Amino acid sequence: MTALDCGSPKAIVLAYLERELDGERLFVKSHHIASECDISAKEAGQALRSLAAGTSRFDIESWGGSSDGTTWLVERPVE
After folding, report:
1. What pTM does this model have?
2. What CATH architecture applies to the domain 8-75?
3. What pLDDT score was predicted for residue 75?
4. From 21's CA, which of 33, 42, 58, 73 has a CA 20 to 30 Å away?
């Protein structure tokens, strides 16, 4: 990981999204982010909800839920 390991879960998730979103869209679950970033799935989910409501770097929306958690759609904003 990077120096953001000491940062907030929101900063860690933001760095993860920057690193992983190399195309137009990314579908992700919070437990996948958690396993790669050494935070809990709950922290990752809370960070995604917070970012969905308040970041201009990505368009983030809850795509669907299932027994294994919510799938999130992450896209770069259309300019």
Report:
1. 0.83
2. Orthogonal Bundle (1.10)
3. 95
4. 42
